[in-house]
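Quick start: load a record and inspect it. Here is Guanidinium exporter:
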Amino acid sequence: MPWVLLAIAGLLEVVWAFSMKQSEGFTRLWPSVVTLAAMLASFGLLAAAMRSLPLGTAYAVWTGIGAVGAFAAGIAFMGESASAMRLLAAGLILSGIVLMKVATP
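Running the structure step on this input writes:
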């Protein structure tokens, strides 16, 4: 169950990063509200997952999911570059997430 909570927390990190961009520096109400709500939920689920998972593993996986997810959202919805080097970098982050999962008892 902690891994499920951590995965959801990571996905919510993507939501708040994306909505923060949409808030235009917290000048738009609803994207700002979504940002804050997703942040609170993400932090709460991360904290719950950390009851069972090691700090380093939980935090690295959470930030990795957020980083790769925000990268993918930027490409899919904001027209950001999908160059080979950027895709390789995201792949390396993803492989680090998988290795953290495999290495954690």
